[in-house]
Amino acid sequence: MSNDAVTPPTGEDETGDDELVCQIRAARSAYRGRLLHVEELEVELPNGKLVRHETVRHPGAVGIVALDERSRVLLVRQYRTPLARVTLEIPAGKIDAGEQPEACARRELAEETGLSAREISPMASLAIAAGYSDEILHLYRATGLVPCVGAEADEDEFVATVWVALSELLAWVRSGRVQDSKTVIAALMLAVPC
């Protein structure tokens, strides 16, 4: 299947909202790290006023909705330093330079779960935090799961897997046990198929 089956918006205004479009007049790098790049932008608002915006540049990521033959969802438990706690999430990871989203999804599934998928298909592309970041996360559905030989997790990644029925996952979302946005969206998309 083509990697561009779910294509993000081009940024071109196709809705007639020209009066809402802002223009970037200047950009300055404020921080460049291993994963993120923060820019300070001078933005001209539609009324001509200049303001400063901080924008986090991110290479993009994938999330994998792995389903077994009983339609259970595979989650990973891992410690998230920014939240200072263990979270429950669908497997996910950053797209490497030059890597296509589907290839990244296959790689991350193998690295985090030790599984590969006979079938993988795009579900949606999500702007994770459009108010301050350009990150796009591509959700994929993975089925026909089989053990993957030779897959190894990143040396700084420690995860445990858990299978959960969709009804239980939805209950965990409602109770706040699952708060990760990509996982919440994936659960809702499974519950209300498009």
Explain how this protein is built.
By secondary structure, the protein is α+β, with helices and mostly antiparallel strands. It is 18% helix and 41% strand. The protein folds into two domains: 18-57, no CATH class; 61-191, Nucleoside Triphosphate Pyrophosphohydrolase (Alpha-Beta Complex). It has helices at residues 101-113, 166-175, 181-191, and strands spanning 23-32, 37-44, 50-57, 61-66, 73-80, 85-89, 92-94, 115-127, 136-147, 159-164. A four-stranded mixed beta sheet has the order 7-4-9-8, with helices on both faces. It has a three-stranded antiparallel beta sheet with strand order 1-2-3, with no helix packed on it. A hairpin with an 8-residue loop joins β8 and β9 (136-147). α2 packs across α3 (181-191). It is globular. The chain starts with 22 loop residues before the first strand and ends with a helix.
Concise summary:
The chain is of the alpha+beta class. It has helices at residues 101-113, 166-175, 181-191, and strands at residues 23-32, 37-44, 50-57, 61-66, 73-80, 85-89, 92-94, 115-127, 136-147, 159-164.
